[in-house]
Amino acid sequence: MSMSLQSRAIVLSIALFFAFAGLWQLILPAGTGSAADMDPAYAALMGATAKGASAMPGPLEVGKQIWEHVLDPFYDAGPNDKGIGIQLGYSILRVLVGFGFAVMVAIPLGFLIGMSPLFYKALDPFIQIMKPVSPLAWMPLALYTIKDSIISSVFVIFICSVWPMLTNTAFGVASVRKEWLNVAKTLEVGHLRTAFRVILPAAAPTIMTGMRISVGIAWLVIVAAEMLVGGTGIGYFVWNEWNNLSITNVIAAIFFIGLIGMVLDLMLSYLARLVTYTE
Amino acid sequence: MMSDSMSTSPQPRIRVEGLAQRFPAPDGSGETTVFEDIWFSVEPGEFVCLIGHSGCGKTTLLNILAGLATASSGNVIVSGQEVTGTSLERAVVFQSHALMPWMTVMGNIAFAVRSKWPRMAKAEMLKHCQKFIDLVHLTGSENKKPSQLSGGMKQRVGIARAMAIEPQILLLDEPFSALDALTRGSLQDELLSICAETEQTVFMITHDIDEAILLADKIILMTNGPDARICEIVENSLPRDRTRANMHTQDNYYPVRNHLIEFLVNRSVGFKDELASPDYDPRHPPVVRPTVITDEAGETGTGVLRAQA
User: Fold this and answer.
1) What is the pLDDT of residues A18-48, one digit of tens each?
2) A192 to chain B, minimum CA–CA distance in Å?
3) For every residue of chain A, which 3-state class applies, written as one string?
4) Which of A185, A271, B99, B296 is most exposed, with the fewest beta carbons within 10 Å of its own?
5) Between B68, B102, B146, which is nearest A182 by CB?
6) Residue numbers of A between 76 and 105 with CB closer than 8 Å to B
7) pTM for this one?
């Protein structure tokens, strides 16, 4: 019997998944403790309902919870009880808006920097200092100046998305092969047409790589940003469920965050394939 | 016919006058002169090859003719107008073909045609592009990307792209040097027949002697750089209907070939002495025409006819 690498990989993936779920089930603290085993003060605090059971769910519980979220993702039962679909929607919207503004700023600016060795050198120290700053460090500044928590979180997404796209666009534009530019020059092609027909397609794969890095970072950052600003979004959902001590929902949310992150990356990698060329 | 090109017509297609290129020396002290005092002209319909060793500034010279580079001093006059930049009347075929890899064969040629005639109707433009794709025998590969083509096919596209804008002058920078011998041969044949058909004025850089003998009416010999000069202008004494297949059977083939080899191997190195001679005038480099001569006794030998341009 010979299976293709692809199908063997799928079988192994499924086996690893069940091994992981089995191990998870095995090492779960046995939920047999009673209130009597607890610190008396803690038991008193928890009240009569406390069974002393661990809040750590098993894989089946998590699976069931995920399934429930899938069945009813968009319910809205007040500010602290919204379906996970709504929360994810808020987060995706913020990421897309922040990322969209970043694209509008980073790509033209990156073009300018890439085209001009002077700007490349002059702006380099600023970019090098700004780039490694954790986007969340901007949050207080954003909250103070913008005075709106939603816009502040969008701003944080913007600021973290800008740098990879800016540096990649500048690099891509600066390293467009001289001979292609010479072809455009000998054909007396205007600046705008050269930019759109020669430089942009030549730099597009590098720009797309920058966009992919940016959207990945943006999705990482939005969870943290929403934990800080609260209100709505998947980050707020995670924090809210932690406050509810619903570890089941926290794990379910981790699963959905990963899933959406993967989808965003797949979408951009598909776009990247469209603009890739082989020399 | 060869003597026609010797007589100076009222207005040559290209006139190069006292061209020099200098760069700041790498160590920052003074300047390095790549070439200096370059004078020559190219008549309409003439095919001129420039031969010289690497480093004598051949590509720099071609870039100046194309308008991609600016000379340190001297002028290039094309059809009576001084060259100040690039022009659609001077098309360049680059050594590395320089096709846009994200465009198809048709796309690459259409990009050039669109640049020359922005308002040409689409159907007419496609027809025009197709004509030149057919001319270089790439019919059927219109929708291929350059990465799907062999090296020879890519260079064919490069030639078609340059020809498609119907320039006054075609500038070729060692277009076949990266190709294998067989492909190079068939592309030379094609270029020869295309140029014969269209009476295209061509200036081509090469370091392949046989290529120059096959294609050129006039071969400009440049000495080694730095501080390169035009050593001599060799007129091709072979009949113009020569082909790659019959070229080596022509009487004058070996006289021309030996003259060029003698230059590349021996004279290009120690040419400083020849330059120092009072007979050498950079404005009128010696024009020679190597031929077979037969003396009274019927003995054949090689003779070099010298003339002053």
Assistant:
1) 999 999 999 887 654 454 566 667 666 665 5
2) 13
3) CCCCHHHHHHHHHHHHHHHHHHHHHHHCCCCCCCHHHCCHHHHHHHCCCCCCCCCCCCHHHHHHHHHHHHHCCCCECCCCCECHHHHHHHHHHHHHHHHHHHHHHHHHHHHHHHHCHHHHHHHHHHHHHHCCCCHHHHHHHHHHHHCCHHHHHHHHHHHHHHHHHHHHHHHHHHCCCHHHHHHHHHCCCCHHHHHHHHHHHHHHHHHHHHHHHHHHHHHHHHHHHHHHHCCCCHHHHHHHHHHCCCHHHHHHHHHHHHHHHHHHHHHHHHHHHHHCCCC
4) B296
5) B68
6) none
7) 0.84
Contact yes or no for B116 and A197 at CB 8 A: no
Q: Does any CB of chain A come closer than 8 Å to the CB of residue B305?
A: no
What ipTM was estimated for this complex? 0.86
Across the 309 residues of chain B, what is the mean pLDDT of every consecutive 10-residue run? 47 91 83 90 94 86 94 92 93 93 96 95 96 93 95 93 94 90 88 87 92 93 85 89 87 90 81 75 86 71 63
Which residues are paired to B91 by β-bridges?
Answer: B170
Instruction: Judge contact between A8 and A1, C-beta under 8 A.
Output: no
Q: Which tokens is A258 given?
A: 């990963």
From chain B residues 65-84, the ones with a CB under 8 A of any chain A CB are 66-68
Per-residue pLDDT of chain A (279 residues; tens, 9 = 90+): 678 999 999 999 999 999 999 999 998 876 544 545 666 676 666 655 555 567 789 899 999 999 999 999 999 888 888 899 999 999 999 999 999 999 999 999 999 999 999 999 999 999 999 999 999 999 999 999 999 999 999 999 999 999 999 999 999 999 999 999 999 999 999 999 999 999 999 999 999 999 999 999 999 999 999 999 888 999 999 999 999 889 999 999 999 999 999 999 999 999 999 999 998
Any chain A CB within 8 A of the CB of B175? no
The owner of tokens 């990963």 is A258
> Which residues on A lie below 8 Å from B111 (Cβ)?
187, 197
Interface mutation vs chain A, best among B102, B104, B159, most A CBs within 10 Å: B102
**For an interface test with B, which of A178, A183, A185 has the most B Cβ atoms less than 10 Å from its Cβ?**
A183
